[in-house]
Amino acid sequence: IKNKNFHLLCMGAYVAKDFSLIGFSKDKMWKFGYTTQPSSRNILELVAQKSTKPIKILWVGRLIWWKQPLIALKAIYKLIYDKYDIEFNVVGGGKLEKKVADYVSKHNIQSRIHYLGLMSNEEVRQLMEESHILLCTSNKLEGWGAVINEGMNAGCVVVANRMMGGAPYLIEDGVSGYLYSGNETYLYNKLKFILSKENFSGVAVKG
Q1: Which of 202, 61, 198, 42 lies closest to 133 in space, CA to CA?
Q2: Per-position b or e across 145-157, b if 16+ CB within 10 A of its CB
Q3: Residues with Cβ within 8 Å of residue 181, at least 6 apart in sequence
């Protein structure tokens, strides 16, 4: 740490704070990020092509505890209960797969929430380009979260947990996407705000 030539590339918004706790100088820490292959398509064309009804919301990732897919499910269920015209797609596999399926079955919302399992990168990209909103719910154990980059590249309105490493770097809340903090209630309230604010090609989203 005391070596003059030793610097730290902070890949995530919370790395600098963590290393400062062990005495690392902030003068030797630099912002550093992860990028994904940008789309060759015009972003305005991507947004314009998205179908207008229902509002399509997407979650992509490993179904493990710290990515918190159940927080997304619970928030979406509240929107469905409130009669918002939405469709929710979940992509991925993992230990929480049964819990996800059981939650959907228990609440009898199979017609609105679809568990799609594992998909290829190309299939995920296509699904992102068809979706209006991408949810990124990982906690602070997500060092960066390239899915945020990918969703923005696909013209999605990205709603991310503020604790995800790359979220505060990539998203200015209300400008380039939306940030939330907390559990499913906070995510639900943020989504309600977005659905009342965003135009989504003029669609009335609550039936």
Answers
A1: 198
A2: bebbbbbbbbbbb
A3: 161, 162, 163
Reported as a single tens digit per residue, the pLDDT across 91-133 is 999 999 999 999 999 999 999 999 999 999 999 999 999 999 9
What size, in residues, is the chain?
207
What residues pair up with 187 in beta bridges, in sequence order?
A: none
**Alpha-carbon distance 170 to 103, whole Å?**
32
Measured between alpha carbons, how far is 85 from 88 in angstroms, rounded to an integer? 10
CB hemisphere CA count around 6 (13 angstroms): 5
Global pTM reads 0.89
Residue range 56-76, pLDDT digits in tens: 999 999 999 999 999 999 999
